[in-house]
């Protein structure tokens, strides 16, 4: 169990998914995540599952729609432009309450953008992304170890709440190589509880229907109110975050994914210079750690949001802080990665301007 | 007294909402009878399209799923690959299959996925009120070609069987119609063949069925049948394009 291996992030997420019982993968090549389908294609036969390279991301997400309805743990991965194409299927899957896992190894956008690491799909991931009133849980790993572990967590959440779950990584996490420990035993899908909604033929039971529409007047509204209850439960019970030096912090950085790794180094730099800085790292981007930020608002002199986008997560922070403390942004849209020194220097400017 | 007509067990006890003279109801009945005759109803998952037959998920007495417009073949691929013991059919209109879902059907056919497609070609968009379909005939009037389909502006119709017949993948491709009792029987035979091929795990079968849409053709049911006989079936040739299981013998 405690063997350690050197793994690339993209390989780790694939291995982690199959160990978590994923037995269906469909996807379309796109940089910087090509190693994921390649790894699945090599290993899935050993796990006795299905690997399919599809004609498009639209086909991939709809194959998941079918595979999930058939009851298997199904996953797809892509990068930003491909995830845009999947939005239709994600919306339908939410409307039909089908569990599945979708990993986005984010790259620079909009449009074809570039293939550098980015976090600019934050809005798309946390606001639903497609049409209609829905949300999907979003998990943001920040290490190869978490790339390995989060598919399992994602499948558990997906099945507990019957919802698609997004893993929001970025090109750096996909390409980076780090030591990895197999922290859980492989899940045998046969040992998972049988789902009572799947389509496996109506022998000995009433026929089942999986659909996302209800044209009867008033019914869709009722259904959506029911679904909101599910989202409220997720918001109450599934918030995950990590803290670093927050106990006595006067200045708080909020950052996720790759940025949180850099921010940690910036906190160390600040502490070495006698500045009481701390870090809040959201692990679930939706549900967002609102309560924690609320608690920090009273005692924090300055929030600094570091993100590899133009200022997306900062909106969630400001919604909680509500102007009661200053919030500043260090953005890196389009492929730039912040450095600890840069955060430290920008912080000093921000502090002077307070 | 002998009962000569009854609702097949393959249909639910629901009133169908199709217009009088519509081909969808006839095709539903054929499929429903086959689910029972082939004894596959209890292991079948049907896929309802987006189109007038979106409500097929209420009508067929088997497990049903209703995905996004045109994506039936991808969903069928997911279902069938995840659980090869299922019998899967994808029921699709011409807008669903030959416009928005062109990529999905072509690639499912090329992969020779082991499921059965029933492709209902009524040369028009029924559900949205009679707009141009990829199968609307040249010069045919639709609500978005009010002066008739000018192929220079609106492009040319797509012959799906001929298109798919250029691929190595599919096992069975047939075009039939439901405009006369004889053709209804032939359609039943063709769809039966499609299901049998799937049951024998031989692969992809597509049965295109020319079907009446009296409402949007602005014709009576009888005129609609005659129009298929005299016009539509001249453009869309009724024939068996391929049955690879026969060639094997
Ligand atoms: C993405 C998307 N675009 C458009 C529509 C609207 N729409 C519903 S049915 C339909 C056409 C259906 O025509 P066809 O497939 O020929 O089936 P028919 O109704 O004639 O049986 C369209 C365009 C939709 N539901 N989804
Ligand atoms: S509009 Fe046409 S296809 Fe739709 S139910 Fe009426 S006749 Fe049938």
UniProtKB/TrEMBL annotation, chain A:
<dbReference type="InterPro" id="IPR009014">
    <property type="entry name" value="Transketo_C/PFOR_II"/>
</dbReference>
<dbReference type="InterPro" id="IPR033412">
    <property type="entry name" value="PFOR_II"/>
</dbReference>
<protein>
    <submittedName>
        <fullName>3-methyl-2-oxobutanoate dehydrogenase subunit beta</fullName>
    </submittedName>
</protein>
<dbReference type="GO" id="GO:0016491">
    <property type="term" value="F:oxidoreductase activity"/>
</dbReference>
<dbReference type="InterPro" id="IPR052368">
    <property type="entry name" value="2-oxoacid_oxidoreductase"/>
</dbReference>
<dbReference type="InterPro" id="IPR002880">
    <property type="entry name" value="Pyrv_Fd/Flavodoxin_OxRdtase_N"/>
</dbReference>
<dbReference type="Pfam" id="PF17147">
    <property type="entry name" value="PFOR_II"/>
</dbReference>
<keyword id="KW-0560">Oxidoreductase</keyword>
<dbReference type="Pfam" id="PF01855">
    <property type="entry name" value="POR_N"/>
</dbReference>
<feature type="domain" description="Pyruvate:ferredoxin oxidoreductase core">
    <location>
        <begin position="249"/>
        <end position="343"/>
    </location>
</feature>
<dbReference type="InterPro" id="IPR029061">
    <property type="entry name" value="THDP-binding"/>
</dbReference>
<feature type="domain" description="Pyruvate flavodoxin/ferredoxin oxidoreductase pyrimidine binding">
    <location>
        <begin position="15"/>
        <end position="186"/>
    </location>
</feature>
TrEMBL record, chain B:
<dbReference type="InterPro" id="IPR011766">
    <property type="entry name" value="TPP_enzyme_TPP-bd"/>
</dbReference>
<dbReference type="GO" id="GO:0016625">
    <property type="term" value="F:oxidoreductase activity, acting on the aldehyde or oxo group of donors, iron-sulfur protein as acceptor"/>
</dbReference>
<dbReference type="GO" id="GO:0045333">
    <property type="term" value="P:cellular respiration"/>
</dbReference>
<dbReference type="InterPro" id="IPR051457">
    <property type="entry name" value="2-oxoacid:Fd_oxidoreductase"/>
</dbReference>
<dbReference type="Pfam" id="PF02775">
    <property type="entry name" value="TPP_enzyme_C"/>
</dbReference>
<keyword id="KW-0560">Oxidoreductase</keyword>
<dbReference type="GO" id="GO:0030976">
    <property type="term" value="F:thiamine pyrophosphate binding"/>
</dbReference>
<protein>
    <submittedName>
        <fullName>2-oxoglutarate oxidoreductase</fullName>
    </submittedName>
</protein>
<dbReference type="InterPro" id="IPR029061">
    <property type="entry name" value="THDP-binding"/>
</dbReference>
<feature type="domain" description="Thiamine pyrophosphate enzyme TPP-binding">
    <location>
        <begin position="57"/>
        <end position="209"/>
    </location>
</feature>
């Amino acid at each position: 169990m405690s063997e350690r291996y050197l793994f690339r992030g993209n390989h780790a997420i694939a291995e982690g998914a199959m160990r978590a019982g994923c037995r269906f993968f469909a996807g379309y090549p796109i940089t910087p995540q090509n190693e994921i389908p390649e790894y699945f294609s090599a290993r899935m036969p050993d796990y006795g599952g299905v690997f399919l390279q599809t004609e498009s991301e639209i086909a991939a997400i709809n194959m998941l729609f079918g595979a999930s309805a058939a009851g298997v743990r199904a996953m797809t991965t892509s990068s930003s432009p491909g995830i845009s194409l999947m939005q239709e299927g994600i919306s339908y899957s939410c409307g039909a309450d089908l569990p599945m896992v979708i990993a986005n190894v984010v790259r620079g956008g909009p449009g074809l953008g570039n293939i550098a690491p980015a976090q600019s799909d934050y809005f798309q991931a946390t606001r639903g992304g497609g049409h209609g009133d829905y949300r999907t849980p979003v998990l943001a790993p920040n290490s190869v170890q978490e790339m390995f572990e989060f598919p399992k967590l994602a499948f558990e959440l997906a099945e507990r709440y019957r919802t698609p779950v997004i893993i929001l990584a970025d090109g750096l996490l996909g390409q980076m190589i780090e030591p990895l420990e197999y922290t859980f035993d492989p899940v045998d899908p046969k040992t998972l509880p049988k789902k009572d909604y799947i389509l496996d033929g109506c022998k000995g039971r009433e026929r089942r229907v999986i659909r996302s529409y209800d044209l009867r007047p008033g019914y869709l509204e009722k259904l959506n109110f029911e679904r909101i209850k599910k989202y409220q439960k997720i918001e109450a019970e599934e918030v995950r975050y990590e803290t670093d030096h927050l106990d006595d912090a006067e200045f708080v950085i909020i950052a996720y994914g790759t940025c949180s790794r850099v921010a940690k180094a910036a906190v160390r730099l600040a502490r070495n210079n006698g500045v009481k800085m701390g870090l809040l790292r959201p692990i679930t981007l939706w549900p967002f750690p609102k309560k924690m930020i609320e608690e920090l608002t009273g005692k924090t002199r300055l929030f600094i949001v570091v993100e590899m986008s133009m200022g997306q997560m900062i909106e969630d922070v400001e919604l909680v802080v509500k102007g009661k403390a200053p919030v500043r942004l260090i953005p890196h849209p389009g492929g730039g990665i912040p450095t600890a020194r840069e955060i430290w220097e920008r912080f000093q400017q921000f502090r002077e301007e307070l | 007294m002998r009962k000569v007509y009854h609702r097949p067990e393959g249909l639910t006890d629901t009133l169908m909402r199709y217009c009088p003279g519509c081909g969808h109801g006839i095709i539903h009945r054929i499929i429903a009878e086959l689910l029972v005759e082939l004894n596959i109803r209890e292991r079948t998952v049907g896929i309802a399209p987006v189109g007038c037959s979106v409500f097929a998920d209420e009508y067929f007495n088997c497990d049903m799923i209703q995905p996004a417009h045109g994506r039936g073949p991808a969903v069928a691929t997911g279902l069938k690959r995840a659980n090869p013991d299922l019998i899967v059919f994808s029921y699709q209109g011409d807008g669903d299959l030959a416009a928005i879902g062109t990529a999905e059907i072509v690639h499912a056919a090329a992969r020779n996925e082991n499921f059965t497609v029933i492709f209902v070609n009524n040369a028009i968009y029924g559900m949205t009120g009679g707009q141009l379909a990829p199968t609307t005939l040249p010069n045919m009037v639709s609500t978005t070609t009010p002066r008739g389909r000018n192929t220079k502006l609106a492009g040319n119709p797509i012959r799906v069987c001929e298109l798919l017949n250029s691929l190595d993948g599919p096992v069975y491709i047939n075009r039939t119609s439901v405009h006369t009792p004889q053709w209804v029987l032939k359609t039943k035979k063709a769809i039966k063949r499609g299901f049998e091929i799937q049951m024998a795990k031989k692969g992809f079968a597509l049965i295109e069925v020319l079907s009446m849409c009296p409402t949007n053709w602005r014709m009576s049911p009888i005129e609609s049948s005659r129009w298929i006989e005299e016009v539509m079936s001249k453009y869309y040739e009724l024939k068996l394009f391929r049955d690879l299981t026969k060639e094997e013998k």
